[in-house]
């Protein structure tokens, strides 16, 4: 492996993570042919097949799984070395890669804007995805930390809750239940619910809420984004169980209303999460401390 290049390891790591040369080409801004060539050269250098190619799909071989683990360690060590050298030289910069669940996208950019006012030299990379993908990014060390509603159970993580996360039930402004001053959960039994996909944190909280009240919700639609859900509710297609932190514009414009249902809002917490083995570089430490100090009051204003 002495003749393997860092670039080859980077390309291999992305392709192996996504099990797709096409996805690797998209993320690295290369052609599919360039990805294939670099992987072939790495296989020649290693003397082992790294992928099994079955039809249009690729799978890691045993050799590929071994190399992926070492490649990630090498790439992370190089990143850590870069950060340490910058700190040694007294540079103010650094890099932080952050993943947030899709519900947190409504406040994460504002947090980053405030952070950049204090740390303008720090380069920040923000990724937004569903809970399952954010957990994978943490586990594979592709990001430094995450903001999410529930830390991954299978990750040896340092997780700190930093702010309340209220979940509410909403309807369109002209919905028959909108004018009611008090509703029981039974009043929702015949209502059509528009919900997030299975596996999302909001979906799990909704299922727990109705299970506690022995109600089986009538799910009419599943959608992968909070924006789509809100527009569907505004259009009168149903009601929804959703994070209050996503509702600012629609509530202020009078397009949505929060139903006054017993037991709501359902209170969860926002967590700041990183792998326990993740070393706090100056940039990462500054962002970690900033979120814990600044975010609680920032989110209080949004709710």
Structural overview:
The structure is a single chain. By secondary structure, the chain is an alpha/beta fold. It has helices spanning 6-18, 21-28, 32-46, 62-88, 108-118, 131-139, 201-212, 226-234, 248-252, 282-302; strands at 51-54, 57-60, 94-101, 122-129, 145-148, 157-172, 192-196, 218-223, 240-243, 256-258, 266-275. The chain has 3 domains: 6-74, Orthogonal Bundle (Arc Repressor Mutant, subunit A); 75-163 and 269-302, D-Maltodextrin-Binding Protein, domain 2; 164-268, D-Maltodextrin-Binding Protein, domain 2, CATH 3.40.190. 43% of the residues lie in helices and 24% in strands. The strands form 3 sheets. Strands 3, 4, 5, 6, 9, 10 and 11 form a 7-stranded mixed beta sheet that branches. A two-stranded antiparallel ribbon has the order 1-2. The chain has a two-stranded parallel ribbon with strand order 7-8. The radius of gyration is 23 Å and the shape is globular. The mean pLDDT is 89.
């Amino acid at each position: 492996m002495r003749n393997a290049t860092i670039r080859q390891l980077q390309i291999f790591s992305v392709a192996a993570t996504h099990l797709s040369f096409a996805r690797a080409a998209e993320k690295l801004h290369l052609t599919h042919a360039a990805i294939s060539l670099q992987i072939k050269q790495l296989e020649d250098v290693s003397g082992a097949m790294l992928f099994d190619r079955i039809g249009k799909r690729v799978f890691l071989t045993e050799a590929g799984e071994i190399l992926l683990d070492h490649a990630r360690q090498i790439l992370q060590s190089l990143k850590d070395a870069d950060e340490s050298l910058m700190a040694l030289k007294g540079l103010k910069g650094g890099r932080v890669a952050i993943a947030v669940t899709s519900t947190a996208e409504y406040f994460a950019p504002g947090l980053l804007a405030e952070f950049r006012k204090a740390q303008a030299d720090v380069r920040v990379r923000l990724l937004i995805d569903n809970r399952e993908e954010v957990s994978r990014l943490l586990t594979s060390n592709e990001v430094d930390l995450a903001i999410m509603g529930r830390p991954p159970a299978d990750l040896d993580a340092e997780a700190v809750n930093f702010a309340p996360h209220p979940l509410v039930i909403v309807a369109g402004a002209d919905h028959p239940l909108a004018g009611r001053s008090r509703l029981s959960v039974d009043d929702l039994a015949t209502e059509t619910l528009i919900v997030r996909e299975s596996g999302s944190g909001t979906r799990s909280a909704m299922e727990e809420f109705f299970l506690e009240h022995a109600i089986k919700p009538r799910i009419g639609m599943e959608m992968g984004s909070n924006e789509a859900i809100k527009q569907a509710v505004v259009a009168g297609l149903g009601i929804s169980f959703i994070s209050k932190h996503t509702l600012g514009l629609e509530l202020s414009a009078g397009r949505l209303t929060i139903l006054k249902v017993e037991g709501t809002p359902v209170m969860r917490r926002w967590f700041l999460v990183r792998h326990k083995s993740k070393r706090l570089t100056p940039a990462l430490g500054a962002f970690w401390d900033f979120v814990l100090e600044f975010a609680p009051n920032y989110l209080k204003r949004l709710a």
